[in-house]
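TASK: fixed-backbone design
INPUT:
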């Protein structure tokens, strides 16, 4: 398995992302999303273990922190379900 950290461009900013891929061809890709609120998944223990377990079963994962959360730069002026698309 390989773990690949990267920053994905989003608008004028970027989002911290970690890809975990199995050895060999992946069966599919699982997006690991944080809950609503100021939760981070890039540095989270649960998300990291989940990604490793999925890789052991042949699935790649992409986990990212929302803008202004965890390792993603940016400022969050308010946090509500309506603002998650930003």
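OUTPUT:
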């Amino acid at each position: 398995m390989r773990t690949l950290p990267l920053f994905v461009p989003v608008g004028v900013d970027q989002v911290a992302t970690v890809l975990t891929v199995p050895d060999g061809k992946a069966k599919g890709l699982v997006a690991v999303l944080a809950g609503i609120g100021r939760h981070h998944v890039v540095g989270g223990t649960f998300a990291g273990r989940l990604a490793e377990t999925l890789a052991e079963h042949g699935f790649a994962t992409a986990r990212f922190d929302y803008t202004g959360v965890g390792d993603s730069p940016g400022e969050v002026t308010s946090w509500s379900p309506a603002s998650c698309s930003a």
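COMMENT: Helices lie at 45-56.
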